[in-house]
Design brief:
The protein is an alpha+beta fold. It contains four helices and seven strands. Strands 1, 2, 3, 4, 5, 6 and 7 form a seven-stranded antiparallel beta sheet that branches. Helix 1 packs across helix 4.
């Protein structure tokens, strides 16, 4: 598990397929190396998001301390419903040199097991058809990812 960013070409491809993809290039994401989805172990990137609405169920995100850009009555954290499949080919290094990024990284490391379990639970429910509103379309993104890998 580590903090990464996703290459712009993949984000552009994903955004054409699914409007729910958070496509800001340079956005930090938490990379989880092995989660099971439809019988296969895959890598997923879970984006950090500064303004998760307060009405979002707590099972759909992992809360972090607010950022300066976090609006009143919103949350900052990892937004599970915006997760994306990823491969090493589309990863970019994310610099952890600010005090805030170091703090967030230490919180994530301390809660690694919980985050992985919550992400896996989300994927299990998603696979059973329990997809929340505004979630990414994981199946469509997997197809696009596999096509991009072969081009």
């Amino acid at each position: 598990m580590k903090i990464v960013s996703i290459k712009k070409d993949l984000l552009n491809c994903y955004k054409k397929i699914d409007s729910e993809v958070l496509d800001k290039h340079g956005r930090p994401c938490l990379l989880i190396l092995r989660l099971k989805y439809k019988g296969k172990k895959r890598m997923f990137a879970i984006p950090f998001r500064s303004n998760i609405p307060s009405n979002v169920p707590k099972i759909h995100y992992f809360a972090l301390p607010p950022r300066p850009s976090t609006k009143k009555n919103h949350r900052h954290g990892l937004h599970y419903i915006k997760m994306m499949p990823i491969t090493k080919m589309f990863l970019e290094r994310y610099r952890l040199d600010s005090p805030a990024s170091i703090l967030y990284n230490s919180i994530l490391e301390r809660n690694k097991k919980r985050i992985i379990e919550e992400c896996q639970k989300y994927l299990d429910l998603y696979e059973k058809g329990q997809c929340p509103s505004y979630c990414t379309s994981i199946d469509k993104l997997i197809v696009a990812l596999e096509e991009m890998e072969h081009n």
